[in-house]
Amino acid sequence: MDSKVNSPSGHDKHDVSSRYSGNSRSRTKPKGWRAFLSPGWIISALLIVSFSYAAISMLAPWQLHKDDDIVARNEQITEAFERDVVPYAELFDASGQIPSSQEFFRVSLTGQYLPDSEVLLRLRPVDSGPAFQSLTPFELENGQIVLVNRGYESSEGTIVPEIEPAPSTPVTITGFARKNEGLPGSAPMEDSGYTQVYGINTEQISDVTGLDLGTDYVQVAEGEPGVLNPMPLPQMDRGNHLSYGFQWIAFGIMAPLGLGYFIWAEMRERRRDKAEREQMAELNTLEPVVETPEVVETAEPTITPAASKRRSRYGDQHRNHYEKISKRDQERF
């Protein structure tokens, strides 16, 4: 008997297995590590390695260094208020420069402002609003000239607000030592009767004023002669830079681990596919089992002519009621 009898769908299961095996062979993937030499895997690996390298060697140190700078700045500000005010000459050297570790230390200056050489720092936000800051040279008694930030005035857009001029008489002021800024990308400009700059760079301001200014400058404290709205000191908040640095380190570690997990999952799937194909190949080599239906022999019943007539005329389930009629009556009919 055909083996199709034993298949629920009416097809030979060996035909099905052979077709499955053929499809599996047509989808055969590269074996071993060669499977991961495809462009997709190579590009993914390069991107993940590049990201991990950048996260651990660049982004994390960047945040951690910012945290170190903020911590050092906060310590300097705290120390500045713990130390006594010292004269300018004790803190600044002959070129008007201070070490970075002494920024925000308090210093006193005796001399007079040079209001005719005033320069404005243009549109640098203060307390989240646009403002103009007054940068006025200050001549000491020994003839040295120091750039002094007298504070700020808030503005509406680019309109220069009214700025009270600095006193021209000799005064003594107290302020905070500040480091010089880098050269701004924009050149100075003239507007509303003022020379305006985009950064506190004493070399650039020396060029526009024609004065020999010291390298670093002084930020006037609140309540001192000539001060406008005093510039606020940096907040002592440490910020989130430390946690950001640790997050970048964690991301740099997790990315290669994620790549390793995907490689393991791919290898596991390939092993499973290989096992299924081997199992189907084993089924394909088995001999077909043909089952012959068992024939049960039964004794044929003896059928009398009368019974045959009854079955043929009335069927197996009906009875002939004329069976008992006498022969004489039958002849009458």
Describe this structure in words.
- It is built from seven helices and nine strands.
- It has a domain at 105-220.
- The protein is α/β, with parallel strands linked by helices and 333 residues long.
- It has helices spanning 13-26, 39-82, 88-91, 202-209, 241-285, 305-314, 327-332, and strands spanning 86-87, 106-113, 119-121, 131-140, 145-154, 171-178, 189-191, 194-197, 217-220.
- The protein has a five-stranded mixed beta barrel with strand order 2-4-5-9-6.
- Helices cover 39% and strands 16% of the residues.
- Helix 2 packs antiparallel against helix 5.
Seen as an oligomer or otherwise, the chain set is single chain
Q: Could you give a short account of the major beta sheet?
A: 5 strands, mixed, barrel
Poorly predicted runs: 1-26, 307-314
Q: How many beta-strand elements?
A: 9
- Name the overall outline: elongated
Arrangement of strands in the largest sheet: 2-4-5-9-6
Distance between the termini: 57 Å
What value does the Rg take, in angstroms?
50 Å
What's the short story on this structure?
The protein has 7 helices and 9 strands; from the N terminus they run ααβαβββββββαβααα.
